[in-house]
Amino acid sequence: MNIRDIFSPTEIRQITARSDARAAFLLAKTWALIGLIFWLVTSWTNPVSVLAALFLLGGQQLGLTVIMHECGHQTFFASRKLNSFFGQYFAANPTFSDLHYYASTHAVHHRKTGTAEDPDLSNYSAYPIDKESFKRKIVRDLTGQTGFKLLSYVFGSAAGIVSSNPQRRAAAKPFAQQVVVNIVLAVLLGLLFAPWAYALWFGAILTTFMLIVRIRQVAEHAAVPDSLSDDPRQNTRTTLASWWERLLFAPNYVNYHLEHHFMASVPCYRLADFHTLLRKRGILNDTPVFNGYYQVIKHAVQ
């Protein structure tokens, strides 16, 4: 399906228009929510508030990776320099990610979605799965096993910065940068909130963030009508999210994933409007759109 057969050039320009103001607002809102979570948990510290903070921080960490994703597509800010700077230092690095590496690998996912060569296929090709298998995945995520593998790789690679081998030092720079940004973040959180505040951030990355990312992956491409179809309506899913689900599983419009695969040049802050337009044109008439993440998990875990 050619998107230019559905929308006029004027409509496409409107749908894909980038806004520095909207991008800055979304980035500021994400960090403001993170600050609010830390203020609440350090002001009223108890087991319930700490547990809630771990999940809410995991949701906003996903929100930062969504912004990294948008900056990787060069669709967040209008300026390439702003995408590169804020996407790297304010979105990718705090979650131990690298914008440029992510952008290059994610571009392959878009080119190969709907084929056996999709590099992300292993994240969701096994679905639907049984409940016991999914429970084991949840346990691995929430006990830090999944996160430990990721962060061990990051810290192990960052250690190469002191190597005498120039090639190893060069390869280690992005990982060392992630560690340095997190040290700065730890100092800032300690000064603004409490000395132990960063432990919550790091703990969320190790545990709840991993689970939330898994659920996002399931919602986007798992147990779809046909994962090897070249039609986004067959290989990708949109999930309509409630307000609380947008805090945890769908920050910054990440739930409109089908729309993103229809046209990756649409900024995330215009995806909801794009969804409405596609519905008005009848493009989604025969496409299952799930209401909430419980419905998705119930479909994918049987």
Plain-language structure description:
By secondary structure, this protein is mainly alpha-helical. It has one domain. 65% of the residues lie in helices and 1% in strands. It has 15 helices and 2 strands. It has helices at residues 9-16, 20-43, 47-73, 80-92, 99-112, 131-142, 145-158, 166-192, 197-206, 208-221, 232-235, 243-248, 257-262, 271-280, 293-300; strands at 239-240, 290-291. The chain has a two-stranded parallel sheet. Helix 3 runs antiparallel to helix 4 (80-92), helix 3 (47-73) crosses helix 5 and helix 6 (131-142) packs antiparallel against helix 10 (208-221). The longest helix is centred in the N-terminal third of the chain and has 27 residues, at 47-73. The protein is globular and about 55 Å long. The model has no long low-confidence stretch (mean pLDDT 95).
Tags for this model:
single chain; 302 residues; mainly alpha; two-stranded parallel ribbon; 15 helices; 2 strands; 65% helix
